[in-house]
Amino acid sequence: MTTPLLLTTPAEMSAWSRERLKAGKSIGFVPTMGALHAGHKSLLDRARKENDMVVASIFVNPTQFGPGEDFERYPRSFEADEHLCAGIPVDVLFHPAPKDMYAADARTFVEVGSLQDVLCGMSRPGHFRGVATVVIKLFALVRPDRAYFGRKDAQQVRILEVMTRDLNLGVQIVPCEIVREADGLAMSSRNRFLAPLERKQAQCLYQALQHCIKRVAAGETAAMKLSGEMAELIDKAAPNAEIDYVAIVDLDTLTDVAKVSGACLAALAVKIGATRLIDNARL
Fold it and tell me: Using CA of residue 108, residue 110, residue 113, residue 115, what is the dihedral sign?
């Protein structure tokens, strides 16, 4: 195992990437908020296969958390994260402090049109502005050829694809498949917050999506009917859960569709206990 080079300031990160690009080395980048798990490892493994150098960032980005959200309690496990990165191996671990990423009077932010205002954006206003802003800042420092993101955050992936295209950033966004637990629950750093009963109930997200996939395969195309069936399944399995949304949307525009046709996405966000979980499946 090789311990990654730890860089903690934007200046250090920028200097390192500049030298690697001068040497003609390709850079693969996996931005994370830490608390790494097998889903993150799959992104890092792919970056390792496809690039000369691999950079991972660990930065719990304050601008993507709204009032009352879990910024303070978001899991932080730097030593374990560093150990996982060493096993890939990752070349550089970028771990900056918020004060170094954002000036005290920062006033420049990135917004991506209507894509940020639907699905998770409806209940988390400002969230995707924070995501887009930190990612473009990280891209400016790391200068990656490719950046790897999990499809569990499908809305985030689409927003970053459009941002990268619209601003001619020259970074290839590489979406990677969802990594799941044995019972189907999508891997997430927040899963550790679930109490045993809540963890069992959380299986209903995957079960609802699988139900939708089977119904579409059997010929059902009415999006409202399919969404209603998924919501009913979740209500029965987890009576105390709070459904944020259950939706079927166009994969490109993320807008609601009346019927499943072409590239569509079944997406849901559900709060079980104090933990908000998201998941999705292509239809």
Answer: negative
